[in-house]
């Protein structure tokens, strides 16, 4: 009986760890968004002034390396998060700390669980697997506009996915830095379906141009299982549900930069319905780096050449590991 209780307790902690975004993003976000304007019209107005003053004073920090906290990145919480799926990080070759890198990751999935866990925390042992390399995960810049939340996000080693922030990390912070970019972005989330191996890459060349401008090496990464942990509902064309779905997704993408997908998964128990991800493994495989010459203004032909080299390297990585991580031998990586 004690053994069963222990297993149930572990499962409960794992489930709560996946729900951590509610108190750590929603609650922390609502407090300043609602509280700062409210306090401005009370006797505690000075708190609003100090909060906004700090935000203005500290505005450049999130685009200039941020404030990483190894303590936050090593919270026990993230180990329960890792074990919920579970999530694993696999390397295929050594990376030298004498270079900087752009980890281009695929696919986005619904919420990029594997990418966050492997690069935004130390739960899968990034610093031990890649000694001397400091990872910085890039995400939407809007999240850094929210007091308190920005401090928490920066503590995990996360920066805005902006040219200024990425270029600073790759040129002003010495060597041994790796910026992690989800190339397909929010648009790719709409293609996230179990069994799908489609990614948006054909016309995404900004990360290649950034590699030229900074001299960083390109590293292909693929998260096997990321598309499997949620199911997504796409309504039939011509129906009012499809019209409404397209409308709110377009609005969210254009205004917030978010992918509001119509997805579902399991509930608080494994056999129930809800919005938690299914307990299915996610494995992020990191490929071999592609050296890129440092050229501030590369020609279109040079960018296209290295973009093609990157695609070939990613396809090679996918083909070499797909069977091992649950994809059939005949399934191909579809570049869109």
Key features of this structure:
globular, 336 residues, 7-stranded mixed beta sheet, alpha/beta
Topology summary:
Layout: H1 2-18, H2 21-39, H3 45-57, H4 70-73, H5 76-84, E1 87-91, E2 101-106, H6 113-120, H7 126-129, E3 134-139, H8 149-155, E4 158-160, H9 163-171, E5 177-182, H10 185-189, E6 198-199, H11 206-214, E7 217-224, E8 231-232, H12 240-255, E9 263-266, E10 273-274, E11 282-286, H13 300-321, E12 334-335
Parallel strand pairs: 1-11, 2-5, 2-7, 3-4, 3-5, 6-12
Antiparallel strand pairs: 7-11, 8-9, 9-10
Helix pairs in contact: 1-5, 2-3
Please tell me about this protein's structure.
The protein has 336 residues and is of the alpha/beta class. The chain has helices at residues 2-18, 21-39, 45-57, 70-73, 76-84, 113-120, 126-129, 149-155, 163-171, 185-189, 206-214, 240-255, 300-321, and strands spanning 87-91, 101-106, 134-139, 158-160, 177-182, 198-199, 217-224, 231-232, 263-266, 273-274, 282-286, 334-335. The strands form 3 sheets. The chain has a 7-stranded mixed beta sheet with strand order 1-11-7-2-5-3-4, sandwiched between helices. The protein has a 3-stranded antiparallel beta sheet with strand order 8-9-10, with no helix packed on it. Strands 6-12 form a two-stranded parallel sheet. Strand 9 and strand 10 form a beta hairpin. Helix 1 (2-18) crosses helix 5 (76-84). The longest helix is centred in the last third of the chain and has 22 residues, at 300-321. It is globular and about 65 Å long.
